[in-house]
Amino acid sequence: MIHTSTPKIIMKKKEYSIEIGGKLLIAIFNDLADQANGSVMLKYGDTVILATAVMGENDKTALGYFPLTVDYEERFYAAGEILGSRFVRREGRPSEEAILAGRVVDRTIRPLFESYIRRDIQVVITVLSLGEDDPDILGIIGASLALGVSNIPWNGPVSAVRIGRQKGSPSFETNPSFLSRKTALYELDLIACGKDGNINMIEVGSKEISETDAMLALTTASEEIEKIQIFQKKIIAELGKKKTIIPKKEIPSEIIALFAENIAGKMVEYIFTGPGHDSINALKETWLVLVKEKAVDHIAFADDYFEDKVNETLHAEAINNNRRADGRSMDEVRPLYAEAGGISPILHGSGIFYRGGTHILSVLTLGGPEDALFIDSMESREEKRRFMHQYNFPPFSTGETGASVE
User: Which of 146, 157, 242, 294 has the most C-beta neighbours closer than 10 Å?
Assistant: First the structure.
């Protein structure tokens, strides 16, 4: 019999930690997800998440947009219980909490990518363990670290913190626990994300507080964010891979000249015509037809170039002339309209609300205790939800065809 020695396999691992809100935030870098471009496990108390970032190899210029996907995946095992349907013990579609948490991560990291990138980038946040601390903040920081140490081009890092306050308390809590947030006196729940002294994403659930207190909460958040930023930059400097260079495709001089001669002088007039996109869409159509006639070989650049110029014009007018596309100043609210009832006596309640061109219809149905929704998710176990808000966004809302968004 021939005996061969088996090499000993050891997980490669390096840890970093920082104290935030009286607890250690621990970043664990290992080779568990070694096929990803970047990955990290983050631990805060007994809550643990795995964040991964992967970039596809194929250029998808034909898409016409930046293909970033953020998935926030809850796992029932993270709660240490066998959950799910009473008959099918398996995770189904994402919960509302997971969808909202994923959107927060997306809104935080997306602005820090170059919009001209046309390669698939996917960030996946997987909740591995759920303690008394919400994993959503870890998801944001984890996404930042996974992208930061990867070779994916990204202008991070970016950090996040939750700031809370109990009514009557003179101080704020940093990353308050689930238990703290469920008390009757909990009056402010603020998630703030940002970098370099700037806030780029805010989520707030609050009772009425003063503007002074709101600003103080944001100032407190900024101070905590800066600590996490320093922490992340140190890690990225030590572990970060060399970034892949994805050059922005040069706009042909023929396109630039054609736009300057025929379209540039009309941008302000067509953009700032009031609510809606009819005017600017008409100008865009004129531009695309012109390009087809005059610069057929460069039609692929025409759409992106036009959108870039619209973006530049909107920013310039907002900064230099304090006005929005519909003519409002930056501190002016759109006209409001509200109507209660009036649709049918069959409905238990209904309301219509307008804010400028945004129109909402809400319908209320009342039921008894037996109509409550049974909740069995990672964060809510064997609870009954007596208030359910079902949001529908039909395609006709934007004058388009397709499937409804829920």
Answer: 146
